Amino acid sequence: MSEATPHDSAPLSEEQQIAAYCEKGRTHWPDEPVVALKTASVQSQIEDTFYEHYLRYFQNAEAKRRWSVVDDIPWAEARGNASELVVSIIESFCAVESFLPDYTSKIMALIRRSRGRALFQANWGYEESKHSLALEGWLIASGKRTEDEMEDFERSLLGAEWKLPFETPRQMICYTMVQELATGLNYINLRRLVHETGEGDPCLDKALRWLSSDESAHYNFFRKGVKTYLALDPEGTVADLKYVFDHFAMPAHALIPEWERRGAEIEASGIYGPKMYLAKIRKPVLEDLQISRTMLKTAGLPSHEADALADKIETKAEIAEQALYPRLRSLPTIPTQRPSTTKTLLTV
Ligand SMILES: [Fe+2]
Ligand SMILES: [Fe+2]
Fold this sequence. Notes:
Helix content is 68%, strand content 0%. By secondary structure, the protein is mostly helical.
């Protein structure tokens, strides 16, 4: 696989990564307006748009983001100098990824009538399946765990079963949007930690880069889905967002042995915790969704935070509008035609 991926550019700071995830989308994948026919039912518009989002996602993944667990991680460069803390955190993340059979089967059953979401979910399952393989592979390649120890650990997880945390497809897309951004941040911060402490190795570094890249792409698909719902049913979607924020928890933690200790060490290491969730996840997500001042408050933000965020969103929108206005003025008059996005994508 070519090494010319976005992940090989100069490393971004955590703030820059989050801003990039939230505001720009990934790898030449700009935000686009909902283009489904306005004469169709709301449900039909949502489905058309999800399908278009999926085709774009798939096209981008096939062209720029595919990676191989076998060939694209330098396994021979795994070292044994990581601390037991880092090893334990990687084992914890591996455990969360290991509930994939539940995530895929239960979410698929919930959204299978949506072609765009169902196809995405199938692709998502493939991509996620590589994450636990990569993490487990590093634990073994680095000599920090034996194959027998990993088998025992995986057996200890078998008795538990993850259940859907929310009941409706819209609530679940709100949940997965938040969860994917949080998961990506977990991997970014872990990678930074091992880099800063000098415990890392090229093998772990590369594996974590692939994983955070995937999580970022997943987040972007879901955020586009939430934006679609917001465009077509803002009140209902904001009510769901609030419900999800009020009840949000990362997946499977309650099912993993010793999670109390594991969660505490992840938080103490500055990788992820409740404060980080509020500042680096909930707030940027709401900012990115560009909902109104009133809706920010409805979504559950404290009034002063909602006002500050709304001011920021409005200022950004004004700047964007001012930048766009001269360009619009200089455009020649041409016949307008609805872009045939689906057809274009299908011929790629
Ligand atoms: Fe993952
Ligand atoms: Fe993911």
